[in-house]
Amino acid sequence: MSGAAGGGGRDIGLQPERTRLAWRRTTLACSVVAVLALRQALRGAGGPLEVGGAAVIALIWLAFLGVAHRRIRSLAAARPPGLAPGAALAAAACTVGLAAFAVAVVV
């Protein structure tokens, strides 16, 4: 069985749908991490350091939501484009930012 449907064209099948679902799961996981990080950041006395940390977490989360939403929308096309290098870099930067905050909270 070949992957092409009726000719020389590429049959993308359900791959865009699987990718869209993966982005939704990743967005949900990022949201849970952001909420837990916000909770941890605001657990203290509510001083300027905690509020600043909460603001940074919220900005990172919003940036990731923007990247994910743009990618999910682009996957709805008949022939979805590949992930742009800038979007990949932004998603990686958001992940590293949340991880760095997690290390800062633990230490």
Characterization of this structure:
- There is one protein chain.
- The chain is mostly helical and 107 residues long.
- It has 3 helices and no strands.
- It has helices at residues 15-41, 48-74, 85-106.
- The chain starts with 14 loop residues before the first helix and ends with a helix.
Characteristics:
single chain, 107 residues
- Gap between N and C termini, in Å? 54 Å
Please provide the ordered H/E string of secondary-structure elements.
Answer: HHH
Q: Work out the helix count.
A: 3
**Radius of gyration in whole Å, from Cα?**
18 Å
Biggest sheet statistics: none
Estimated structural class: mainly alpha
Uncertain parts = none
Count of DSSP strands: 0
Helix content: over 70%
Strand content: under 5%
Please, what is the average pLDDT? Answer: 82
**Net shape:** elongated
